[in-house]
Amino acid sequence: MAMLEYNEVRERKYIIFEGEPFEVLGSHVFRKQQRKPVNATKLKSLLTGRIVEHSFHVSDKVEEADLSTREIKYLYANKGEYWFCESADQSKRFKLEEALVGSQIKFVKSNSLVNALVFDDRIIGVKLPIKVELKVTEAADAVKGNTVQGGTKIVTLETGATINVPMFVNQGDIIRINTETGDYNERVGK
How many Cβ atoms sit within 10 Å of the Cβ of residue 41? Predict the structure, then answer.
């Protein structure tokens, strides 16, 4: 296991803190007046989802979490349960709770491959691709002069998710979406 210095604890790193794996959401190294530098971090527990703020000092060392990834296939959602299967063997099906999967699963099509985060042979989360391309299934027509609200409209995607897009996006268009923010990125084609 790799040990990290206080200033190596940065965004998108996974560490062991208080005996469980945490993802570093934010970090800021600063020095107050004549004191030694401190790294103020924001951490998210990968087991419970709770968010903690902690300051690491110069003398602190922290263990990097030994997480592995495994490719799994997303099958479908039903009443808050999300069903997956092993990518090689579809008969091995299992469900994950919404807290583990995250709300961004609404941008993933059925039968898509995603990466599962594994800690101690247990799935503790799902890593989605940062950008996905989805087809617009429902879009209201743009009305001339209807740009008072910034020139956006709400459309429905093939996964059932709804997002704000520019007025020129029409039904049948394929658009690219950032899964981390849930924002429209660009129109890819028809």
Answer: 25
- pLDDT single digits (tens) 158-177: 998 999 998 888 899 999 99
Q: Quick one: which of 121, 146, 145, 137 has its CA closest to 170?
A: 137
Rounded mean pLDDT, 34-46: 89
When pLDDT is averaged across residues 74-102 and rounded to a whole number, the result is: 85
The CATH code of the domain that includes 50 is: 2.30.30.30
Comparing 186 with 140, which gets the higher pLDDT?
186
Claim to verify: residue 120 and residue 143 sit in the same structural domain: no
The torsion angles phi and psi of 6, rounded to 5 degrees, stand at -60, -35
Note down the domain range covering 36: 3-64
Q: Which of 91, 107, 127 is the last residue of a domain?
A: 127
pLDDT of 92 = 87
Q: How many domains in the chain? A: 3
Tell me, what CATH number does 86's domain have? 2.40.50.140
